[in-house]
Amino acid sequence: MSDYIIAIDQGTTSSRAILYDRQLSPQASCSEELPLSYPHTGWVEQEPEAIWQSVLHCIRQLLQQNGIQAKQVAALALTNQRETTLLWDKKTSKTLYPAIVWQDRRTADQCLALKQKA
Question: Domain total for the chain?
Answer without folding.
Answer: 1
